[in-house]
Amino acid sequence: MLAYKRKICWYFLARNKFIFLFCIAAITVFHRSIIQSTAVMDTFYISHGSPTLAIDEAAEARVFLQSWEKKGLSPRPKSILVISGHWETKVPTVNVIRGNHDTIHDFYGFPQQMYQLKYPAPGAPELAMRVKELLMASGFKKVDEDKKRGLDHGAWVPLMLMFPEADIPVCQLSLQTDKDGTYHYNIGKALAPLREEGILIMGSGSATHNLRDLRFGSKSVSSWALEFDTWLKDALLQGRFEDVNHYEEKAPHAKKAHPSPDHFYPLHVAMGAAGEKAKAKLIHHSWELGTLSYASYQFATNK
Question: Three-state SS for 113?
Fold first, then answer.
């Protein structure tokens, strides 16, 4: 009987030890998943160029964006904040969408196929409210809400290539083109805490954007576009963010490269959100129509 009782005791000890070790392992895995899910996100500026990027299989930038997840350029985000060159308002505005986004076909004269494309990503109303909270806490006195606006092509064209399942919640934030680069850089600074909350902050525009000087059929790059694009690359890679904030005075052919700043200010937001000591990296570069640069940048944040 005593021997039997000893066997029972050893059985429960062994069993409890197994349960204890199992719990430790489970806690470790859970802890690691928490760390991974809250990893500080880098920020990005994507040159989306022409809307036909969505269907042009020969475009190098399209291939680059399609390889986004395969290359592991960013962890899969909890949700995405897009600052697009195609939404301008008087004051900062977020789209607060409950349900799925409408796809805005905000272009004219393109192939009919373009108007059939849809990207019904879910809205991110909680993120929209968080963006509003952060901006107002940083001194932006008025932040509006738009409860109807869907995704413009500056958002859905790159996103449908990067995340084709359209299953990640998305929020858009507008630009104020009557302001300057520093203003938009400060918007980015206000949004920096989102990087620690699993949010991908993505500016979407074009490194050069002069639609009145496109060179159809040209295989060479215009000198003014090349000079501006090279200056921008050097300034970003060398960490001269203040020069980029004041690009109108610092950059060659600034007004030629951006007759309107709408496609450039998304860069300032992404740059500001990454922080003053962030490291910029050129992650893609190609040209189209002689003057349209698809240069795209990653800002590795302080971690």
Answer: helix
Whether the per-residue pLDDT at 184 is higher than 70: the answer is yes
Q: How many residues does the chain have?
A: 303
Q: How far is CA 190 from CA 119, 136, 275, in A?
A: 28, 9, 10
- Note whether 159 and 170 are within 8 A (CB): yes
How many angstroms separate the CA atoms of 99 and 121, rounded? 9
Place of tokens 């192939």: 111
Paired tokens of 87: 């939404």
pTM: 0.86
Nearest alpha carbon to residue 42 among 11, 71, 7: 71
Q: For residue 214, what are the contacts with CB-CB under 8 A and spacing of at least 6? A: 289, 290, 291, 292
Longest dimension (CA), the chain: 97
Tokens at residue 150, please? 């869907």
Q: Where are the alpha helices (DSSP H) in the chain?
A: 2-37, 60-66, 68-71, 125-137, 153-162, 181-191, 223-237, 241-245, 247-250, 254-257, 265-274
Distance between CA atoms of residues 134 and 145, nearest Å: 14
Pair of tokens at residue 292: 């349209």
The residue to which tokens 């039997």 are assigned: 4
Q: Which two tokens stand for residue 260?
A: 């309107």
pLDDT tens digits for range 14-46: 455 544 444 444 434 344 444 344 578 999 999
Q: Coil, strand, or helix at residue 88?
A: strand
b/e per residue 40-68 (b: at least 16 CB within 10 A): bbbbbbbbbbbbbbbeeeebebbebbeeb
Is residue 11 predicted with pLDDT exceeding 60? Answer: no
